[in-house]
Amino acid sequence: MFRKLSNIELNRLDTEEYKRARKLPVTVVLDNVRSQHNIGSAFRTSDAFLVEKVVLCGICAVPPTPEIHKSALGAEFSVEWDYRDDAVQAVSELRDAGYTLIGVEQTENSTSLEDLKVEDGKRYALVFGNEVKGVNQQVIDMCDECLEIPQWGTKHSLNVSVSAGVVLWEFCKKLRSINQ
Length: 180
Fold this sequence. Notes:
alpha/beta
């Protein structure tokens, strides 16, 4: 027999506890993501995995908006975020700050997500691209690695918010296993 847990039984962090909590050493970069619902979903997923920051770039809308809030459900208030005019600027700043830059894109010589290797003590920036055009080639050129999510059906891509969930889960799982 299964009984759904109430919100109180889930023992979730409140916004202030979240802000003080130890974060996963991962920053999410959204490169010209058009849909505010996808942006909100990225915030919500980032909150779920204790991501340190979301960087919104280019045409990305920024909080607060009703559309972002609809899918973020308040995560836009708990997760730290920043805005940059373009992803090249954001990725350059993250590189200078010592991040390992990983584009989530189908490229020549990309690493399959199942083969991802993470290292303790490293900080990672994961770049997710526009719903149609993907990650800008200039940004890809700056990346240390590109990750590809294995797929076997007729479609060649996943929604950016789904990709963020899949990739962040794998990062979270691997980074937490190192620190156990």
